[in-house]
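User: For a reading group we're discussing how well predicted structures match intuition. Take Autoinducer 2 import system permease protein LsrC. Before you show the prediction, I'll give you the sequence so everyone sees exactly what went in.
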Amino acid sequence: MSEQAQQASAGQKPRSLSRLWFASREAKLLLALLLICIAISVREPRFLDLNNLEQVALSGTLVCIVALGQALLIVGRQIDLSVGAMVAASAFVSADWLAAHPDGSLIVVFLIGISIGVLLGAGNAVLVAGLRIPAIVATLGTLAIYRGGIIVYAGGRQISATVLPDSYGNIAQMHIGGQSPLVWTTLALVVILGWLARFTRTGRNIYAIGSNTEGAEFAGIAVRRHIAYLFVLSGGLCGLTGVLWGARFGTVDAIIAPDLQLQTISAAVVGGVSIFGGSGSVYGAAIGAAIFVVLQNGVQLLGLDQFWIPALLGVAILATVIFYSQLTRRSETSRSRKGTP
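Assistant: Thanks. Here is the predicted 3D structure of Autoinducer 2 import system permease protein LsrC, as structure tokens, for the group to look at:
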């Protein structure tokens, strides 16, 4: 190859990669997020206030972390309706321990919260991967069991910031490099889980399972084991979120995060994760979570009825499901015309 040809080839590659990125789902979602922010700020300039943006970012981190696990579950053609109850259980148990041991290490608090989440996630894994109960049925049952269990454990108690050490609340209030540790933690999880899903064998297997479960089994992929991994991972992320929830809001009780399952499913689906499995990314789910919290903040700032938040999410979910349903039908029609199976 001549030098000119090499230079041309080298010059074409970045352009093709840039075109590929701008044509991606994530780029379109970022554009949609930007347009939503502009629309809200035009109507309500307070949206661009630095303090307001910081509060939006902090609230978004909690939804985003759980949405990452939910997105991977949906990619693998599963779902978890018990995420809110797992967050509540992890938040209350860890905060309760810290209230009883105000001089205790925050590392222990995180270990307790994450362990609770992993344990509850393993319970879901046993039901779905072990006993082969459909995920929507199993997690609907554990939603009631986990929520009821933590309500009984709490006994009507509420743990407030006044009985917790200042170091706990400082986790959310302090700044490192201009941002809260919650934001940096969320960004790190997005990058790590995104890389694992894209570049590891386990990640590729999850996409294969979501695309064609029977075909994945025929190819020798341990489907049930991978599904168990996903539920345990989702539980661990819920446990981490529970600890961060207490640091963010200060007050913890047994009924926090009642709508988290709807929020995270919405974030994943709006973020381009196909509800039929096998398609989407954690990057899109993270952007979907950002869209959700921006819309929520915009509704509050504009003084609109809070009813519009779940209504908008419902419309977005239905529109996305209809879109992917039509896309699947067109793909199947195209394959049948070509005579491919």
